[in-house]
Design brief:
single chain, 165 residues, mainly beta, two-stranded antiparallel sheet, 45% strand
Amino acid sequence: MKGPFWSDIDTTKIGDIYFREMTSESSSPNEFDDLYSIDMDINSYAKLNDSIFRSTWAMVVTWSEVTYHTRSYLKSIPKNTFQLILAQNRDQKNSSLSFGIFNYIKMEWPQFSNKNVRQQHPFLAGYNSFTSMFNQKYEVIERSKISNLLTRSNVNKPGKWIFKF
């Protein structure tokens, strides 16, 4: 699976990647609230045919203030902040649904000029998966303009994308 933003990210001097796992068995009230928020997003925007999604497990990964690979590590270098949330539920019959939520919070990477053609730092946003060579599924959100990730959406909430896996 590709991430919500696939590019040449460099966290050696600036930026961090955080992750945490949450389960419905957790005794932490904060984790329960976070799972509830994830469920609210999925139930508000995903088409589930009159059923209600309740997470039993979630993984939240946040790329915070990350930069592109460069020789310069100035504090003023443009930074991106984005997030991937994977959520799954299991029912009594041991079947499950899985969703991915991509949140684009801050996308500052610049456009570069090359022979009068404006291009951004190369990137790809979306996901892909396959269970066999003949059964592939992919979704490309954006590959040409970083700012589109902040202004567009597949759930009518700018910067938020939700996919059923």
